[in-house]
Amino acid sequence: MTERVVLAFSGGLDTSVAIPYLADKTGAEVIAVAVDVGQGGENMDAIRQRALDCGAVESEVVDAREEFATDFCLPALRANALYMDRYPLVSALSRPLIVKHLVAAAKKYGGTIVSHGCTGKGNDQVRFEVGIGALAPELKVIAPARDYAWTRDKAIAFAEEKQLPIEVSSKSPYSIDQNLWGRAVETGFLEDIWNGPIEDIYDYTADPAVAREPDEVVITFEAGVPVAIDGRSVSPYEAIVELNKRAGAQGVGRLDMVEDRLVGIKSREVYEAPGAIALITAHQELENVTVERDLARFKKGVDQRWGELVYDGLWFSPLKHALDAFIDDTQKHVSGDIRLTLHGGRAVVTGRRSAASLYDFSLATYDSGDMFDQSLAKGFVQLWGLPSRLASARDARLG
User: Fold this and answer.
1) Was 119 annotated as part of a binding site?
2) Hey, what domains does the chain have and what are their CATH numbers?
3) Which of 125, 137, 317, 357 is most exposed, with minimal Cβ within 10 Å?
4) Beta bridge pairs of residue 115
5) Of 124, 267, 335, 346, which is the active-site residue?
6) Model confidence over 320-354: pLDDT tens digits?
7) Per annotation, catalytic residue among 146, 175, 261, 324
8) Residue 123 is labelled as binding a ligand
9) Where are the beta strands (DSSP E) in 151-205?
């Protein structure tokens, strides 16, 4: 029986060429699977047909935009997930979703091998292969760019030799990955970390230095989930789409950073994530209002670890699963409204209100109506500082 390879298919040169190349190299039939995670660009039906034209025996396109928003972006939002306190996990979030659909296709079509277009230098090879190993450890994995020293020059020559119906025109100097949650740009002149990014590399965001009127937006959350914008009910997908547009128009969400890749090297990345940054900013502020102090302090460490696990390709790991349960419990009272002003590349919180608020005006005010019993404070301060005083006296005694 002929083996079948399930290929993560984007429709570009490299994965189009991979179809006949994998067939030649392995003798297997190729199943192409393209997943729409809100990356935009070509019509998915055209991508499906291109896979068939390049020799795939089956070709599937999956509209996973709503699923991506609800099952992947939303957990990242509730975890305030920012790798290295800045990166909102753009590519890292989409990979486990793609893995899920690759594994489903392998089961549906009797695939025994899964293939992806990642190199041996990046994070995505880990995200794909660790995810596949968690969901279907019996599947083998082939990565042509890594396992067969596949290069773009070889891909172009192979496409011409096979007369494949694809464009082999000059390539953009940048490597770009984008989806609903944001956009990542690397390589080209950006590899010199002294070079500043130029305006041409951006697509999701307008130049924040251009003068324009501010945009005020009110985001309503229920249990950590955005459910309305300016009083209009929205799904998670609709919330992200609208804030990508509105925050992007104000230049919100541009990031230029050197990050620590999982494989141990540092990489310069430029990101655009207007909707993600606006939503995380609002969600963090609502947590400040509604989550008790010690729980909030502990959750910050959980959020950081959650982001590291997802960045490192461990979406399906036991620890990630356990942290999900903790985060879910913390969101019970994260409900209310946050008002943001989007302007000049920033999303600034200007108002908060919540029926679950822990902010008590009568305790916080310094004016008339103050209900705080200040007579209790002196003893509290003395007891709170007692361990430090005892330690200081001990150190003085021992010299």
Assistant:
1) yes
2) 4-171 (3.40.50.620), 176-291+333-353 (3.90.1260.10)
3) 137
4) 7, 142
5) 124
6) 999 999 999 999 999 999 999 999 999 999 999 99
7) 175
8) yes
9) 175-179, 182-186
